[in-house]
């Protein structure tokens, strides 16, 4: 018997755990979105109707004819469809359109994001030796957070955000035991974030992957030089596997104007500091159904949307228990250097999400030319919620 193999009882417990988590990953989102699951209702809010449906419909029509969707004629004088990063032309869920009607395929695309987020978060936490109960709680907190639920109004960003935990899990697994198989899995999961259609999420996930990798304690006889090489290989693999989506978009940026022409435009949809209370209390300012108890005219004076008539998402809720447990975890591990690396990364993301409220986003915009095509700081709230 292999000395490193787990005892039979532990192995059986692990199989039961994985089976339970797989069942919960399917059942809980189906019940949470019961109207989408058990009726003909479909997701239509926001850019789901304005952008996601038209692009998916056009791509589906091309694929049905056995043609690659290379040129999109409906945008101005036309342009390369893969170069439109938000098209998500290479995402695996586009294959659903070959066998399902448009509305059903989009509905299933949205619903599948939640099991993926659930399992990815649980796997990441278990990889960090978080107890099973804690991993389950963390997976529930992120999967059904206000941000992920509300960003169903724009599936492009839901696809990317839901893949981030699994991508970080893949990076961590490769760093702890570099093998060709783990490199392939980690690279594909990183590329999946890009294939979702959110270039900024892909860039931030790559950066967080480096943070996770470099903060991992060295094991003898590993050296920092070897760890750095492992990190570079992982980043390069993720980038190369995402190249079919990245390279056309880079070519478009180099020959045209970036999405955010000025720092002011880039910082539209900045998170107002008052909305940080939503992490604990729920959408007391931006809830659209009129139950917040604060008159609309007061909200509009308190929360400036950067020229828009709505917030990027209507809720950032994660819950008071999750916030209290996060602080308790910080108190229990404050002596570990890795803890403060993660806290520093989270604080930086929080400062970026606040956008025009603080000068930090503007500094990054000016200092990093590759950051300039990105806009709407509130998109980064998914990372704050995950943290």
TrEMBL record:
Keyword check for Transmembrane, yes or no.
yes
Instruction: Identify the keywords attached in UniProt to this record, alphabetized.
Output: Membrane, Transmembrane, Transmembrane helix
Has UniProt tagged this entry with the keyword Membrane? yes
- Residues passing through the membrane, by range: 16-34, 95-118, 130-150, 157-175, 187-215, 227-247, 315-334, 341-364
Q: State the source organism's domain of life.
A: Bacteria
Descriptive protein name = YfhO family protein
Which lineage ranks, top first, belong to the organism behind this chain? Bacteria, Pseudomonadati, Myxococcota, Myxococcia, Myxococcales
